[in-house]
Design brief:
single chain; 379 residues; ten-stranded mixed sheet; globular
Length: 379
């Protein structure tokens, strides 16, 4: 056991903030943004931080319920602890909020390991293959305004001025409206800007196929979550009957949840979220599984600086697919939608410039939490 790595305490933090301007994706309106962070402390006072995707009020009690299984254990035994936590609730939580809670714990344990050994997480993962990644801008949600295209174009101009070269448009407002919006948005941003689309599983397979064929001339990099995550046959049908690359996986959990998507090649691009799929330990396994089948991995990222840092360390080691002198490296999803907690949480925000983001180099995740922000946003 590394010196001082016995787990002393596990503390979930539920954080929440009201939004000045609500926004929506195809499934719901957001009027508040929150986060659930996990703080794990060792006997020597090493602190690790993790984050869970999903409703903070639901994932926090699960972390508290699991905490007694961790106290007194060696924080360096990440694999053993992951298996113990997952197996303890395997009959009840093979997906969803249980795995999201385990994700936060796992990320925090990797943070502790890096700090205990004086190394960044990407070094512990065997990397790096790259020390900076190109980012695309996530945003472009619906607001409570009628001039939908106008404010999306304004947002696009802002993101392009920040150095982004690729933007992700939210769809799922109805088939005819989505087709018209996508065409108009592409015309507004011009042919040289990368464009991705994400309907957050608002379609069934026939509608997704109709949309993909209707906007094929818009040069779209990928079509994200075209159908509900449970509908693997629908993914295969969409992939076969329209020309845009299909992406998905942010609502899949652990290696078993990705197994069918990978073996049946249901998507061209897999998007596991480190704060949802089982943490750093599990996302690395999923990426390795996908690599064996020649499937690209481009993680979903939609949290605070904790999830962002964890994702960057993974992006540092996800293999090029395929490898070569001129590889196509994975992209970083950089959420630019309103999030007061995200913007305030890190003492030193992760820098973005020129369309690229550097992988943190400090021990563990390489970030420092601003405890004043924890107090300010505590729910």
């Amino acid at each position: 056991m590394a010196r001082g790595t016995t787990i002393r305490a596990i503390q979930p933090h539920v954080l929440m903030a009201d939004l000045a301007e609500p926004f929506a994706y195809s499934q719901a309106w957001y009027r508040r943004r929150g986060a659930m962070l996990v703080e794990i402390t060792t006997e020597d006072g090493i602190t690790g931080w993790g984050e869970a995707f999903g409703p903070p009020e639901l994932t926090a009690p699960i972390v508290a319920w699991l905490a007694p299984l961790l106290v007194g254990q060696d924080a360096m035994a990440r694999e053993a602890l992951w298996q113990a936590l997952y197996n303890h609730l395997r009959d009840h939580g093979q997906r969803g909020i249980v795995v999201e809670a385990i994700s936060a714990i796992d990320i925090a344990l990797w943070d502790i390991a890096g700090k205990a050994l004086g190394e960044p997480v990407h070094r512990l993962l065997g990397g790096p293959l790259r020390m900076e990644v190109e980012a695309y801008a996530t945003g472009f949600y619906r607001r409570e305004r009628d001039d939908h295209l106008a404010y999306l174009v304004e947002e696009a101009e802002l993101r392009l001025s920040e150095g982004f070269r690729t933007l992700k448009l939210k769809t799922g407002w109805g088939l005819a409206e989505d087709i018209a919006l996508t065409r108009a948005f592409r015309a507004a941003i011009g042919p040289d800007v990368g464009l991705l689309v994400d309907c957050n599983h608002a379609y069934d397979a026939p509608a997704a196929i109709a949309y993909g064929n209707a906007v094929a001339a818009c040069d779209i990099g990928w079509f994200e979550e075209p159908v509900p995550p449970e509908d693997i046959d629908g993914y295969l049908e969409v992939k076969a009957r329209q020309p845009i690359l299909v992406a998905g996986g942010e609502a899949s959990f652990a290696r078993w949840g990705f197994r069918e998507m990978i073996t049946r090649r249901a998507a061209d691009i897999l998007q596991p979220d480190v704060a949802a799929c089982g943490g750093i330990s599990e996302l690395k396994k999923i990426a390795d599984m996908a690599s064996a089948f020649g499937i690209r991995v481009n993680p979903h990222v939609w949290g605070t600086g904790v999830a962002l840092a964890a994702s960057l360390h993974l992006l540092a080691v996800i293999p090029d697919n395929p490898p070569g002198l001129f590889p196509r490296a994975p992209l970083l999803e950089l959420d630019r939608s309103p999030h007061p907690v995200r913007n305030a949480l890190l003492a030193e925000p992760i820098a973005f410039g020129g369309g690229r983001v550097a992988v943190p180099t400090g021990p563990g995740l390489g970030i420092t939490i601003d405890r004043a922000a924890l107090d300010r946003f505590r729910a």
